[in-house]
């Protein structure tokens, strides 16, 4: 037992072993706490509201798919999913494009005022997006952008930029100077170097910041709540919230709608988990 | 040279010199070179700077301006009232409740999430079969949208809901409470929901930090006869310092501006009494929905000022501790 615990931290290079029972017991407990409520919501969607009222903590008896079918066919689910996709993809593209250009300059050019510019961007980490929401709404209103995708995309890009630059800069700095020299000797300018060498090499970091921006945008609630008054532009979080307050008595329907709304983010994250943890390693080096 | 370039650039083929760029013109014309460098710097950073300034910095400036007026949001603000909005906010017991609730959430999150996340991260950093799956499951709450989490827990914790039924079925019916309706209890219920939701974020960061700890140190300690616990305590934990501080910082800022989960989970009536209000929900309730735009913007400035001061104090305090810690720890070591 003791030998096992002493050796296990250094076991990285050996083939993966079965841990001791205590490790599994604890890991199972953690998993149970994390996913029990989620499983409850998904399974609850397979019950009927009378079933839920009669016994809130029971299992479906019988299982009904009616709620899920109803959400997928009758409600505004698909339009909201489409809106969410447009907004999230737009935000992700914007953040990555603007962020990589700025981070490239901050990482690979030496010029007077570079550190000032970097500090200027990192200052944004101190500006909570929530605090700026009221003046932001007023400004978007004056720019006639309310009730458009831009009203969500542009501020989200702006507020994601600081973190993106903080993550990307060390990554871009770490790419060896020799590559840049070699490219210069071959007649490639700095912009060509960025496009042909930097971007392909820094794909892991780009994917990390992209995923972070995408998930943040996909889940965003406060900004869309204020600037997307038009129901046809509502994103999924707004849709879920509206559905649950509109059909308060339709518990089973709410559970089904909620389950379907959380699926995309869950699937997306499942595929990208390694990238996120890997990409954050550079950022938390301190 | 060319071959290096090509292998690194699978898509590009032969790297052609872009038009207008002279090959290796280092000696030819310094001034032109410098000028082009500045064009590139300006061209590449301007879009980011414009978007960032326009949508992050400018709104905060306007918030301060609007906060000096009594203004319903129609037409330009005209009724200048100085700092009355600020005075009003600090005299409103509901706002003071919101401040207290934010304080509970800031310190409660740090005190509860920190130890839990550390324990879980150390656990999931061990090498055992199925680790990847357990990691994914531990991250699930963090990935879910705040709205989803809020509605989910609202349905579970509602009066006579699933949680109450569960308690009754295992004979603990006496413990049943109006979790979301009791004015003294609701903020603690919300703190629980927030903890459930955000502890995964701390775990992700700590796991990323843990993978930066060199294996050799652990191996050396193990050879010296240190137990697993001793290694974690004396080798891993000190090296995790920077990661823990980044997490504390982000958690604090997030807690100060928390909105979504509170807004969705708590009942509006309870929120309007202050029992479950936070600065952000108070700001949106008053500024956006009650159309007291001047007042709402004053609350926004207060929220911003508190976050800003907290962030500065945090950095100063912990930076100093960092330096002292590094020196004293080394001196104390045998």
UniProtKB/TrEMBL annotation, chain A:
The record's InterPro entries line, in alphabetical order, gives: MetI-like, MetI-like_sf
One of its Pfam families is BPD_transp_1
Report the locations given in the UniProt record: Cell membrane
For this record, an example GO cellular component is: plasma membrane
Q: Which SUPFAM superfamilies match?
A: MetI-like
Which GO biological process entries does UniProt record here?
transmembrane transport
Does the record's keyword annotation contain ATP-binding? Answer: no
Question: How is the protein disposed in the membrane?
Answer: Multi-pass membrane protein
Chain ranges of the ABC transmembrane type-1 domain = 81-272
Mark the transmembrane ranges: 21-43, 85-109, 116-137, 149-168, 205-228, 252-272
Keywords per UniProt: Cell membrane, Membrane, Transmembrane, Transmembrane helix, Transport
What's the family?
Belongs to the binding-protein-dependent transport system permease family.
Q: What is this protein called?
A: Carbohydrate ABC transporter permease
UniProtKB/TrEMBL annotation, chain B:
From the UniProt record, give one GO term of the biological process aspect: transmembrane transport
Name the residues that span the membrane. Answer: 38-66, 103-124, 136-156, 185-208, 246-264, 292-314
**Per the database record, which ranges form the ABC transmembrane type-1 domain?**
99-314
- The species this protein belongs to is Micromonospora zingiberis
Q: Which SUPFAM superfamilies match?
A: MetI-like
User: Family assignment?
Assistant: Belongs to the binding-protein-dependent transport system permease family.
One Gene Ontology CC term in the entry: plasma membrane
Q: How does it sit in the membrane?
A: Multi-pass membrane protein
Q: Which CDD domains match?
A: TM_PBP2
Name of this protein: Sugar ABC transporter permease
Short name of one Pfam family for this protein? BPD_transp_1
Keywords, comma-separated and alphabetical: Cell membrane, Membrane, Transmembrane, Transmembrane helix, Transport
Tell me the segments the record calls region Disordered.
Answer: 1-29
Q: Which InterPro entries match?
A: ABC_transporter_permease, MetI-like, MetI-like_sf
Q: Which compartment or compartments is the protein found in?
A: Cell membrane
Q: What is its main location?
A: membrane
């Amino acid at each position: 037992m003791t030998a096992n615990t002493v050796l296990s931290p250094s076991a990285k290079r050996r083939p993966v072993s079965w841990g001791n029972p205590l490790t599994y017991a604890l890991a199972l407990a953690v998993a149970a706490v994390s996913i029990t409520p989620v499983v409850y919501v998904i399974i609850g969607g397979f019950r009927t509201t009378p079933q839920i009222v009669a016994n809130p903590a029971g299992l479906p008896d019988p299982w009904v798919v009616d709620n899920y079918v109803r959400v997928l066919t009758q409600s505004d689910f698909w339009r909201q999913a489409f809106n969410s996709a447009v907004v999230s993809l737009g935000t992700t593209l914007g953040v990555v494009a603007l962020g990589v250009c700025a981070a490239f300059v901050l990482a690979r050019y030496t010029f007077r005022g570079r550190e000032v510019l970097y500090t200027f961007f990192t200052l944004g980490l101190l500006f909570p997006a929530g605090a700026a929401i009221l003046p932001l709404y007023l400004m978007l209103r004056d720019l006639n952008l309310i009730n458009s995708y831009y009203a969500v995309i542009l501020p989200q890009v702006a507020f994601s930029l600081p973190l993106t630059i903080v993550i990307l800069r060390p990554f871009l700095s770490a790419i060896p100077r020799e590559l840049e020299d070699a490219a210069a000797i071959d007649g490639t300018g700095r912009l060509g170097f960025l496009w042909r060498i930097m971007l392909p090499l820094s794909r892991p970091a780009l994917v990390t910041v992209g995923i972070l921006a995408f998930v943040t945008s996909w889940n965003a609630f406060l900004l869309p709540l204020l600037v997307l008054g038009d129901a046809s532009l509502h994103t999924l979080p707004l849709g879920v919230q509206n559905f649950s307050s509109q059909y308060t008595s339709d518990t089973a329907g709410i559970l089904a709608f909620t389950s379907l709304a959380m699926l995309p983010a869950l699937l997306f994250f499942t595929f990208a988990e390694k990238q996120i943890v890997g990409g954050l390693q550079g950022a938390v080096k301190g | 040279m060319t071959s290096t370039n090509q292998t690194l650039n699978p898509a590009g083929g032969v790297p052609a010199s872009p038009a207008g760029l002279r090959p290796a013109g280092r000696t030819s014309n310094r001034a032109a070179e410098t000028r082009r460098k500045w064009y590139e710097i300006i061209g590449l950073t301007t879009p980011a700077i414009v978007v960032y300034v326009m949508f992050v910095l400018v709104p905060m400036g306007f918030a301060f301006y609007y906060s000096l007026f009594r203004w319903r949001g129609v037409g330009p603000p005209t009724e200048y009232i100085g700092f009355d909005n600020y005075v009003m906010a600090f005299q409103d017991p509901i706002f003071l409740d919101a401040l207290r609730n934010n304080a509970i959430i800031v310190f409660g999150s740090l005190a509860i999430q920190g130890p839990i996340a550390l324990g879980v991260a150390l656990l999931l950093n061990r090498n055992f079969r199925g680790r990847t799956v357990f990691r994914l499951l531990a991250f699930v709450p963090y990935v879910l949208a705040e709205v989803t989490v809020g509605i989910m827990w609202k349905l579970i914790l509602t009066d006579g809901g699933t949680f109450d039924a569960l308690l009754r079925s295992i004979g603990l019916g006496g413990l049943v409470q109006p979790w979301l309706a009791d004015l003294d209890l609701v903020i603690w219920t919300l703190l629980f929901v927030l903890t459930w939701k955000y502890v995964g974020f701390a775990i992700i960061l700590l796991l990323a930090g843990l993978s930066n700890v060199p294996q050799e140190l652990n191996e050396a300690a193990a050879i010296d006869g240190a137990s697993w616990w001793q290694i974690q305590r004396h080798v891993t934990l000190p090296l995790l310092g920077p990661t823990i501080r980044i997490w504390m910082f982000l958690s604090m800022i997030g807690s100060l501006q928390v909105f979504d989960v509170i807004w969705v989970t708590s009942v509006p009536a309870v929120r309007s009494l202050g029992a479950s209000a936070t600065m952000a929900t108070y700001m949106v309730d008053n500024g956006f929905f009650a159309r007291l735009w001047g007042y709402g913007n004053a609350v926004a400035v207060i929220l911003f000022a508190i976050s800003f001061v907290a962030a500065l104090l945090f950095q100063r305090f912990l930076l100093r501790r960092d330096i002292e810690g590094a020196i004293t720890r080394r001196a104390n070591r045998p």
